[in-house]
Structure prediction request, 185 residues.
Amino acid sequence: MSDNQPFLTDIKTLRERARQHIDDGAVTAGYDADRDKVIQLLNDALATEIVCVLRYRRHYFMAKGPNSKGVADEFMAHSNEEQGHADQIAERIVQLGGEPDFAPQGLATRSHAEYVEGTTLADMIKENLVAERIAIDTYREIVQFIGDKDPTSRRLMESILAVEEEHADEMLDLLAANPDAEKAH
Ligand SMILES: [Fe+2]
Ligand SMILES: [Fe+2]
Prediction:
């Protein structure tokens, strides 16, 4: 590193490194994070997203009652957005040289959020709210863990985190509009 370039690795070294580790794809020698750990965390998040896709979809088909149409549509919209998150996370795992884990075996265990079917419309909304809050907490922790070491993975998880916060907010509004959980039991 030359004196007049205190912050940047010189371009020749960068180019040499890029050639030496060409098989590493997007992961260069400047990658600071614990790559295996980041891939593992992303795979846990991937499992969470898949479980959320399935739970929201189950709820879409099972939603019943006079107010169910709008709520069911919201469930489906969320399910599709969770699928989009799953795809983004899987793509990033591959960029990091890992393999996205789509195996159905152990999916529920790998996931942070749970698959709860619920019976009433309010039950379903509540379960989705709980799952979103779990995703929010764990994704925030992942963002903090990654820190400045892998800005791309961090930004991805930050952008997904923001959407999960919107999801939670929407479930809270739906719960306020459909407060029949206690009456059903
Ligand atoms: Fe998501
Ligand atoms: Fe969500």
Observations:
- The chain is about 65% helix and 0% strand.
- The chain has one domain: 33-177.
